[in-house]
Structure formats: C-alpha cells, structure tokens
C-alpha cells in the first residue's frame, strides 16, 4: 500500500486532484480538492488505495489522522468512499466526533447519503473508538495557506460543482447560493461556508 505520494499538483477538479510524481500523474480523490492549486511546490498527500472488483482508486488526505478517520468511516456498513469523503469535506472533525460520541443522530443525517439507519450504525460502530483521531490531532486543513486557490471569477461555480460531486442535491445547493453570493471567496472557502450552512439547517 502507498503510504503517501510527494509531488506537484498538475490539475484540480471538483472530485479529485492529479499529483505529478516523477512524470507520472496520480488521480487522487480528496474531501475538498480546492484546498490545493496547481503549483510547482512539492506537497505530500497521504493515500489510501481502495480496491474492489470493479474499481481501483486512490484517496488522499492532508494528515495520517484524517486518513485514519476515512478508513474508520469505510468500516461502517452503508458508507462507501464517496460518502466518507462527503463527511470529511466539512473540515470539522470535532463536530463529527462529538456527534458520534453524543449519539446526535439529527446532526449525522445531514450528510449526503446518511439516513437514520446509517447514522445509528455509525454511532454503534465508532462511538468510543476514535481516540486515535481526536480533533486536536488535526491541523486545520482548510485554513488559509499558500497552496490554496487564489480568488477567480469562477470560484463559486467550482465550489458548486464540488458540492454536487459530494452528493448534495441541486435543490439543497440552490437554497444556499444567495448566502454564498454575498462574499467574494476562494472555491475552498465557498465549500467550507456551504457545508456549514448545509450542516446547520439551511437545507
């Protein structure tokens, strides 16, 4: 298994980034691709290789702890890679862990693809088992940093595409667009703001 890949970001899309490593382009699905931008700067992405009969894909994360949480989410019946990425995309691991520990079903079902049955399974399988991925082990992956996207006119469009790729319905996204249009933000910042609106009742 690949522990991590170091390289330069060659492409950023709504679902994945392409990391150039010694002339080879690795397609890596990440919770929020727009944390990255195309650059000659070397970065490291911790990877998880997902193998099934009909799929072989790489998933990438900023820290080993974030990857560990992704793997724990995959262990829950009813959650696949896309669902796990959507859960992690909010960038608020503290809220997720707290909701699981407090058995806050109402919060968990706000994630795309998570119904009551899956939320209960998450609480059953993960409660008390997240000590190795507690929130304070995570650097703020979505804080301002030099490798973030610069503001461009199509940043909001990019963010909306990324939300659709995460599994949010168009009607849900449409409700929060007016709130998003009030500020000129980067795609990453639009995604963060949108996810907070979606997770806190603006649906």
TrEMBL record:
Residues 71-90, 106-125 form the Helix-hairpin-helix DNA-binding motif class domain. Keywords: Cytoplasm, DNA damage, DNA recombination, DNA repair, DNA-binding, Hydrolase. GO terms for molecular function: ATP binding; four-way junction DNA binding; four-way junction helicase activity; hydrolase activity. InterPro entries: DNA_helicase_Holl-junc_RuvA_I, Hlx-hairpin-Hlx_DNA-bd_motif, NA-bd_OB-fold, RuvA, RuvA_2-like, RuvA_C, RuvA_C_sf. GO terms for biological process: DNA recombination; DNA repair. The keyword Glycosyltransferase does not apply. Pfam families: HHH_5 (PF14520), RuvA_C (PF07499), RuvA_N (PF01330). Residues 152-203 are annotated as: Domain III. SMART domains: HhH1 (SM00278). It is found in: Cytoplasm. Its main location: cytoplasm. The keyword Protein transport does not apply. One of its GO terms (cellular component) is Holliday junction helicase complex. Belongs to the RuvA family. Homotetramer. Forms an RuvA(8)-RuvB(12)-Holliday junction (HJ) complex. HJ DNA is sandwiched between 2 RuvA tetramers; dsDNA enters through RuvA and exits via RuvB. An RuvB hexamer assembles on each DNA strand where it exits the tetramer. Each RuvB hexamer is contacted by two RuvA subunits (via domain III) on 2 adjacent RuvB subunits; this complex drives branch migration. In the full resolvosome a probable DNA-RuvA(4)-RuvB(12)-RuvC(2) complex forms which resolves the HJ. The RuvA-RuvB-RuvC complex processes Holliday junction (HJ) DNA during genetic recombination and DNA repair, while the RuvA-RuvB complex plays an important role in the rescue of blocked DNA replication forks via replication fork reversal (RFR). RuvA specifically binds to HJ cruciform DNA, conferring on it an open structure. The RuvB hexamer acts as an ATP-dependent pump, pulling dsDNA into and through the RuvAB complex. HJ branch migration allows RuvC to scan DNA until it finds its consensus sequence, where it cleaves and resolves the cruciform DNA. Has three domains with a flexible linker between the domains II and III and assumes an 'L' shape. Domain III is highly mobile and contacts RuvB. This is Holliday junction branch migration complex subunit RuvA. It comes from Ectobacillus ponti. The lineage of its organism: Bacteria, Bacillati, Bacillota, Bacilli, Bacillales.
């Amino acid at each position: 298994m690949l522990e991590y890949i170091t390289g330069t970001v060659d492409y950023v899309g709504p679902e994945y980034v392409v990391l150039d490593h010694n002339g080879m382009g690795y397609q890596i699905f990440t919770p929020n691709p727009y944390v990255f931008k195309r650059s000659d700067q070397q970065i490291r992405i911790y990877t998880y290789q997902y193998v099934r009969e009909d799929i072989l894909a790489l998933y990438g994360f900023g820290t080993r702890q974030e990857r560990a949480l992704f793997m724990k989410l995959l262990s829950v019946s009813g959650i696949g890679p896309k669902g796990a990425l959507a859960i992690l995309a909010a960038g608020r691991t503290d809220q997720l862990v707290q909701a699981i520990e407090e058995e806050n079903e109402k919060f968990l079902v706000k994630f795309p693809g998570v119904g009551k049955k899956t939320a209960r399974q998450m609480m059953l399988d993960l409660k008390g088992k997240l000590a190795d991925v507690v929130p304070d082990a995570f650097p703020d992956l979505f804080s301002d940093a030099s490798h973030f996207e610069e503001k461009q006119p199509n940043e909001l469009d990019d963010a909306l595409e990324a939300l659709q790729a995460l599994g949010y319905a168009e009607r849900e996204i449409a409700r929060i667009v007016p709130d998003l249009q009030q500020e000129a933000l980067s795609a990453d910042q639009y995604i963060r703001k949108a996810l907070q609106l979606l997770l806190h009742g603006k649906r």
